[in-house]
């Protein structure tokens, strides 16, 4: 009985002290918190609310990074690894696609396409896109075309990029200025300034308000071709009269 009475007295003292601490505003704690009990002092080094908030951290990444990793499931990862393994063997790749890729769900197929584009596996990404186009649920989406065209252009696969470009226009979808800029940059890297100018002329018919990015890509890439560059420069001055154009020195390019 004596032990039970002692234990109850101890618990009541601690409970009363903790209640007093929780009822007190946190900004008043300018020194370590202390609450007296029967056997000494219970010292709290920092406010209790801060301790509780710290307990919720479990080591996982926060926000979209974690959600993005969860979208790439085991089946999608297996398909991506298999397609990369058999990409140099058309027969094995066709069998793998028939047995594993076609059974993926809609979201998984789009996820696989996006991941192949991110990894610059543009040949496999193009195959995956053609499979998606044949699905009953497929509806032409400008962003799917845009991402694939940009990936192909960055890899200098300009012939395939223009095939997707033409396919997009047949479905009455039109590129934005970022897509124009990447295709123009791809042709300039590919060594085809004439094709870049053809895309530029097509861009000038775009009904959207003009943006600087495609013009600056052309002005930089056409430095070895002054006649073409002057045409773009005049258009840029008319559309953006307040913007500055950098003209490199002629000595930089060996012209006397």
UniProtKB/TrEMBL annotation:
InterPro entries, alphabetized: PPR_rpt, THA8L-like, TPR-like_helical_dom_sf
Keyword Repeat part of the UniProt annotation: yes
Signal sequence region: none
Keyword Nucleus: no
Sequence ranges of the PPR repeats: 141-175, 176-210
Protein's recorded name: Pentatricopeptide repeat-containing protein
Protein species of origin: Dendrobium nobile (Orchid)
Keywords: Repeat
Pfam families found in the cross-reference section: PPR_2
UniProt-listed NCBIfam families: PPR (TIGR00756)
Alphabetical list of Gene3D superfamilies matching this protein: Tetratricopeptide repeat domain
């Amino acid at each position: 009985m004596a032990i039970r009475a002692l234990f109850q007295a101890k618990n009541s003292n601690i409970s009363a002290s903790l209640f007093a601490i929780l009822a007190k505003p946190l900004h008043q704690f300018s020194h370590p918190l202390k609450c007296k009990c029967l056997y000494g002092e219970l010292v709290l080094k920092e406010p209790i609310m801060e301790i509780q908030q710290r307990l919720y951290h479990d080591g996982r990444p926060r926000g979209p990074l974690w959600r993005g990793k969860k979208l790439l499931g085991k089946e999608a990862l297996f398909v991506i690894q298999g397609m990369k393994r058999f990409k140099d063997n058309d027969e094995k790749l066709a069998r793998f696609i028939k047995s594993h890729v076609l059974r993926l769900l809609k979201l998984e197929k789009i996820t696989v396409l996006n991941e192949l584009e991110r990894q610059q596996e543009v040949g496999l990404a193009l195959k995956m896109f053609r499979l998606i186009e044949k699905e009953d649920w497929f509806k032409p989406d400008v962003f799917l075309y845009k991402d694939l065209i940009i990936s192909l252009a960055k890899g200098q696969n300009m012939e395939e990029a223009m095939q997707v470009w033409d396919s997009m226009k047949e479905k009455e979808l039109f590129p934005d200025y970022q897509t124009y800029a990447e295709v123009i940059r791809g042709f300039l890297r590919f060594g085809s300034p004439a094709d870049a100018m053809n895309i530029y002329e097509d861009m000038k018919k775009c009904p959207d308000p003009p943006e600087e990015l495609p013009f600056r890509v052309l002005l930089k890439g056409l430095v070895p071709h002054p006649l073409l560059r002057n045409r773009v420069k005049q258009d840029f001055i008319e559309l953006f009269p307040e913007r500055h154009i950098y003209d490199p020195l002629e000595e930089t390019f060996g012209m006397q």
